[in-house]
Automatic annotation (TrEMBL):
CDD domains: TPP_PYR_DXS_TK_like
InterPro entries attached to this UniProt entry: PDH/Transketolase, THDP-binding, Transketo_C/PFOR_II, Transketolase-like_Pyr-bd, Transketolase_C
Keywords, alphabetical: Thiamine pyrophosphate
Family indicated by similarity: Belongs to the transketolase family.
Protein name per the record: Transketolase
Cofactor field: thiamine diphosphate
Residue span(s) of domain Transketolase-like pyrimidine-binding: 14-179
Matching SMART domains: Transket_pyr (SM00861)
Claim: Plastid is one of the keywords in the record: no
Transmembrane helix as UniProt keyword: no
Domain of life per record: Bacteria
Protein source organism: Faecalicatena contorta
Amino acid sequence: MAVKTTFDFDQMLSNAKEAYGEELMKLAEEGREFLFTYSDNVAPSSSAGKIIEKYPDRCFNFGIAEPNQVGASAGMALAGHIVFAQVFGPFLPLRAADQIHTDIAYNDVNVRLIGTHSGVTAGGGPTHNDIADLALYRAIPNLTVVVPADAGQCRKVIRASMEYEGPMIIRIDRAGSPDIYAEDYEFKIGKAIELIEGKDAAIISTGSSLYECMMAAKMLKEEGISAGVLDMHTIKPLDREAILRVAYKAGNVVTVEDHSVNGGLGGAVAETLCEAGYTGKFKRVAMPDEFSVLGDPDEIYKFYGMDRTGIAEQIRSMLR
């Protein structure tokens, strides 16, 4: 069992968690108007701390009162401001569900809720794993839900959100994830990106799981299997056209996500395929319906078959 590394706080500051603060600082330096709220000590201990130091009049600390923070952020938005609200990811959907639903989504306000430490990356064990949030967010009207794959994409999401109307969830992990994109590319909220074309299987993934999917596709290519990879960075609104395009091309679809097998990306893709009458093979790779074992994220992924080896084996089994 994955028990060797339970609390590896040396990896606490992830690239994406640094990237959102760096991009917010750039926006502030460009003269863009927005407010920033934060909870706990995550923001001050990261690059976002520079905004707090330089622009204290636009930053508000709510300590460990996440529901109050989300509710107050809604009030600021109702007063005409764009608000970025950094919240410790495991507590955002569970402690502030009412405020997200009623204050943020129902009022359809311009608040960008940045949930850090998502998936099994929090480092605090099962009570701090954020694996049910996408299921909640998908069911709430008006919410846009974006899961950046790497630091560069996180910056693109932050910048694009300045021109986007309505409430948004930006879900990022804690641990440093490898860069997916080596050069600049066009990013549009709600439009999936096909990273690798495949004719034998299609892997649809999001967030930090994408890197393992890319590595799985590389492994399979060496065996003569053509597996495509689709970056479904926006969970809601879902790019159904892209899903159907890669599904019908390949005939075998696998979804991979750092989330419960229930209600997340896999559920959204399954609904899309079923409603379209898709008759090919389909498999979800995600956290099973249980509380996770303790361990470093990479160890947990391996334990549950969510790493490159597990993903590749799921595709091999489909093609047998």
